[in-house]
Amino acid sequence: MNERHTTFPSALEAFFLVVCTWAIEYLMICAMYDIRRWLGVDDFYGLATIARVLASGLIFTALLHWKNLDYRDLFHAPQTTTAATMAAVVPLVLLATPCLFLVMGELNDLLQAAFPPGSDVSERCKDMLAPRPPQIIMVCVLAPVVEEMLFRGIILRSFLRQYERGYAILGSAVVFGFAHMNIYQLVGGITFGVAAGWLYERSRSLIPGMVMHAVINSGVMLLANTGAGTADNNPTTLALMLLPALPACYMLRRVLAGPVQ
After folding, report:
1. Which pairs from 147-151 meet CB under 8 Å and 24+ separation?
2. Is residue 222 in a domain?
């Protein structure tokens, strides 16, 4: 298909899209509030999680049609098979993700030490990550798919056509962090966004980033509901996580080091 509006959004337009997403999210929360029990979500923050994913999906769908893109072009741009990408890159991403998870955890610990969250913030996070079926589906399955399609498939795709590679990846990561609406997720979102952006820029496929996003979200939910810290502060656990992760990071860099197709 012939893509239209290839340089939309710009950096400023991307932030405007995030604000539009917030507005749609608010309207959806209001619309769903009276049917929250039917949805199986009794708390406000669980409802907000559902509304956020739906709002991102609505914005993404509108942009997909406006830019005249189809899902095949969006998910895997180069003329290589999706199966080849899955076979070569995704296993390395799965092995390497613990490195990113640990970095994000340490940054979060430093941030919380510098700016201790209030009890209301902690309770809000617990509610958002409660292991209920709707929350699990939204956080661990749908959010990684929808957010990668919007922030990497649409926003970063456009940034790479307008800005230098490094600025494009960092800029899209800042937009992604900003979309989470709080300082704690801002830092983690930027960190994750840089890694996911690099994966997309190198592979031109959304699949590796979606896999990494799903693993990170699942890990955060697991830790939030087990009361453990990052790697449970256990040197043995840390070593077991890093033992395959560090070589996988090196191999991933080697595999994706070639020119972008």
Report:
1. 147/53, 147/56, 147/176, 147/213, 148/196, 148/206, 148/209, 148/210, 148/213, 149/60, 149/74, 149/206, 150/56, 150/59, 150/60, 150/63, 151/175, 151/176, 151/179, 151/193, 151/196
2. yes
Q: Total structural domains in the chain?
A: 1
Q: Does residue 1 belong to any structural domain of this protein?
A: no
Q: Is pLDDT of 230 > 60? A: no
Q: How far apart are CA 51 and CA 74, in angstroms?
A: 23
Strand-pairing partners, residue 76, are 205
Give the amino acid at 20.
C
- Calpha distance 159→36 (Å, rounded): 38
Does residue 2 sit within a domain?
no
- The predicted-structure confidence for 32-64, as pLDDT tens digits, reads as follows 777 666 655 566 666 777 888 899 999 999 999
Domain that holds residue 123: 11-255
Phi, psi of 241 (to 5 degrees): -75, -40
| Amino acid at the residue 187 | V
Q: Name the β-bridge partners of 77.
A: none
